[in-house]
Fold this sequence. Notes:
Strand order of the largest sheet of chain B: 1-2-4-3-5-6-7-8
Shape of chain A: globular
CATH superfamily of chain B: Alpha/Beta hydrolase fold, catalytic domain
Shape of chain B: globular
Number of helices of chain B: 12
CATH class of chain B: Alpha Beta
CATH superfamily of the largest domain in chain A: FAD/NAD(P)-binding domain
CATH class of the largest domain in chain A: Alpha Beta
Structural class of chain B: alpha/beta
Oligomer: heterodimer
Number of domains of chain B: 1
Structural class of chain A: alpha/beta
CATH topology of the largest domain in chain A: FAD/NAD(P)-binding domain
CATH architecture of the largest domain in chain A: 3-Layer(bba) Sandwich
Distance between the termini of chain A: 33 Å
Largest interface: A-B, 21 and 31 residues
Strand content of chain B: 15-25%
Radius of gyration of chain B: 18 Å
Largest sheet of chain A: 9 strands, mixed
Helix content of chain B: 40-55%
Number of strands of chain A: 21
Helix content of chain A: 25-40%
Amino acid sequence: MTSTLETQPAPAPQPTAGVRDVKVAIIGSGFAGLGMAIALRKRGEHDFAVLERADDVGGTWRDNTYPGAACDVQSNLYSFSFAPNPDWPRSYSEQPEIQAYLQATADRFGVREHCVFGADVTSARWDDAARRWEVRTTAGQFRAQVLVSAAGALADPTYPDIPGLDSFAGTVMHSARWDASHDLAGEKVAVIGTGASAIQVVPAIQPIVDSVAVYQRTPAWVVPRTDHPVKPVMRLLYRIVPGLQKAVRSALYLFREFLVIGMAKRRRFLKPVAKLAQAHLHKQVRDPKLREALTPNYTIGCKRILISNDYFPAVAAPNAELVTGGIAEVREHSIVDRDGVERPTDTIVLATGFHVTDLPIAEKICGRDGRSLADVWSDGMVSNRSSTVAGFPNLFLLVGPNVGVGHTSMVYMIESQVAYVDDALQTMDAEGLAVLETTPAAQEAYRDLIAEKSKGTVWLAGGCASWYLDKHGHNTTLWPDFTFRFRRLTRKLDRENYVGTPATSAEVAA
Amino acid sequence: MTATVWRRVAAVRSPDGAELHATIDGTDDAPVTVVLAHGWTLAQAAWDDVADQLAPRIAAGDLRLVRYDQRGHGRSTWGDAEITVDQLGDDLAAVIDQLAPTGPVVLGGHSMGGMTIMCLAASRPELFGDRVRGVLLVSTSAGDLTSDPRSAGGRMAKLKPGVLNAALAGAGVFERLRNLLPPDHPRHQKMVRGLLYGADATDEMVLTGARIMHASTLRSFIAFMPALGDHDKREELTALTRVPVEIFVGDSDKLTPRRHSKQLAEVLPEAQLHEVERTGHMVTQERPQLVTDAIERLMAAATADRAAA
Lengths: 510, 309
């Protein structure tokens, strides 16, 4: 712990009749929640609480502890710009290092004393008379002027609706809820799904299990992972050469941004990437049938491009099997595929992803007219600048709609949003506003902007069904352009798109 | 509830550390286990047609079918031991010991897979009679593979080890050359058809076989060639006289011509020899029904024995 704790004790939220009043309540303590909290601390704002349902910070990186969990973006880029870490052990860090980084960063900026752990938000309602958010959690009630939802998109695992899954007598675990005490050694394991989590977990468990069956619905495009340990001399250079790590970060950022040209502008620029992925598969898998089963039939980039050097060899290992027939049902000790083949199974690993287009937190947040965000969003998520929603005053969303990226660091997007929200909060202070709410017109305009930018992109036209699109086939999750354009759009609060209600003198006094 | 076929894959570990990729169809309580061994530069997929024909009987619980990739082939690894056909016999022993430790077993081997079974008969004769109760030998030989310089096998065996090693060193180049003429190329198929298939083989059969072989490595081609030349088990097949044996050979087989199977039939006078007309080396693919029928006869004999005993 840092010494700032002792010298500058944060004013703890005052409990009043069991309800704690805070100026800002932040839901979640992953990259987004921590980024927001740090921004507040940095400008001397102490009147806030971070509501965290678990017992530690970290969010997605705390929860995803499955073997092999690692980031698909280089750590030099996948980290806070204001908190570079010269000690990353690998170019692409694994989950424990990223989680340690988040813990250390939370400590370093004194965020932890603002965290209320075990506080799972059960409901958040806007009280229009009091102009406050009433937030109920499993750790008590909160009243906040501003609510920042940093609950994230990769927070709540999806469980597939497979007949008989409930009757399975063995162990079932989701990759995002890994049970490390369960020993897979010598077991017959089924992995369901072939997305980003699956291709990390399969090579990690394949050498220790008796056999692994990988149940694939759609194959992924996989390109080589250029991962390597960071040499001690490089770590030293990062420490002593000013700007070096920042330069590396910028280079990585620019390189990745080139992918946007192919994915969102000119799809033919993706051809070399597809060639690279094809050569990768060709080199690693010799069996013609397996190779065919692992070859995607949609344009590269439509679904998330995955990076791995050990997934294909693991699927082609002597004790592995790729099952493409689809699952008909799960029985007590086996899985039956649609070809009528029944495979004995001890443990089922669900690598089936997260609720992304139907964020569960949206069911818990109710706005001015009492309707939940999920209800308002039932025809698809809408927002102004991915951050605010009409009818939900003083609510800000981090990692909400249309802010996802598949090609680069999510942290870049989070920092863009944090700056936007922070500017909004400062504007409220400067103008003496009690309430700030975006307009439906601004939302429409933003939706049109997203739709226009999404037109012709590989996500819509690539011939695949991905978790980026909602049930209507609309892109409500991805930012469909260069990420620096999002940053430009969110640099300052677009005050003209908001209606502000001044605080009464009583409120100012309070 | 419709009948399903139980399937699992297993990596069978040999004492020297090779991991053999095996597919096991059927339940462990089936009355008989059929183990199939494939040939040189092929893989267990060479038995796919036979497996398809056996599928209803597997679903009915009549047998358990084990197919495996020989070391250095398919998905199996190489291990540390020197490459010999005797080693393949030891591998087959490991497959039986680990996947069918009890109950009657019927063995089937195609080409090098048949030699594998002969090596097992030489090294583990005690298995035959009690455990192994029937043997199917398809397009194979007990030895003397190189004596006929006019046969395709003889011509290939003339390649000296030095030439082979040079080829292995330049494997990357050879791989690229091989990829220039992929299996679906007409010239590639013409070559494969000419060497391995009989007059009745369909283009589809040839393409399937060509793809399986194309997936095998140059290393397995080179490493096993001298091993096959060294194979000579004509004096050590006594164990095979204790069980029913069926021998198949295509009349237009160029790799292991008819005289090899005739020789086998002389050493094993009780064995049934089937010479199949208008058929080449790939009998398992070209005549899957004949091969399946033989397996079913051997299975019936194997389980009838047990019932009597």
